[in-house]
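Incident review: delayed structure delivery

Summary: a single-chain prediction request sat in the queue longer than the usual turnaround. Root cause was a stuck worker, restarted by the on-call engineer. No data loss occurred. The affected request and its eventual output are reproduced below so the record is complete for anyone auditing the incident later.

Affected input:
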Amino acid sequence: MNTPQDSSLGREVAYPSQYDPALLFPIPRRAAREEIGVDEANLPFVGHDRWQAYELSWLDRRGKPRVAVATVSVPCTSPNLIESKSFKLYLNSLNSTRFDDDEQARQRIAGDLSACAGAVVNVVFGVPLLVEAAEGESLDELDVAIERYGPPAPEYLSANAGQVVTETLSSALLKSNCPVTGQPDWASVSVRYRGPRIDREGLLRYLVSYREHAEFHEQCVERIFNELTLRCQPEWLEVEARYTRRGGLDINPWRASAGIEQPARTVRDLRQ
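Output delivered after worker restart:
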């Protein structure tokens, strides 16, 4: 079984000079899901991991460089997540690779990523529109005292069963850490739901309690979704975290209740 400790994370690695799909490093999702009580065979959510790539280049058939940006969508039902540093190294291995046309390059990238994830990965050129304002109601100006920064504290979560609402809450204060290198991962998070009204101060304290927590981006979002479901009992729920860019890549894990086919909005934050 691949583990983060087996990957190139935290190690000095030379940038590749030739195309090499073997650079991609899969990490099975199962162990992290078992830790939070999620059954791999009966997922309580749908979703994807949307990567946005800003440093993408290859050569045309005559050797002239081509540059692009791309949006990559890995389904949450894939058995593996794609480790981010290996993804960056793989994309750089394309820099000196010739393709007959842009579509051939896109298909090669999609095929290699699909083989790593163990499921069909969608790749399109272009990235979503950038927006300045967060969706819904921001929690970040709440006047609250916070003293706990890890591990995540689901006991902060509660909801008022006597008041059913449909709303979106957001915060730009989510931070977690890479479980291998300890480097900080910064994100804005959006919680859209219908159900008992979630306590704002408790939700903000809960999100800030990830501040010293070490876990991959995708796993943090699944933990948030699972704990909100258990503690607040929404009729339906949608959680997305938009992480800031590192090495020309950012990741935006999105998890939602069954029946929600896509995010309410697919956009980029200012920090991305």
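Verification: Residues 179 and 214 are 4 Å apart (CA to CA).
Action items: add queue-age alerting; document worker restart procedure.
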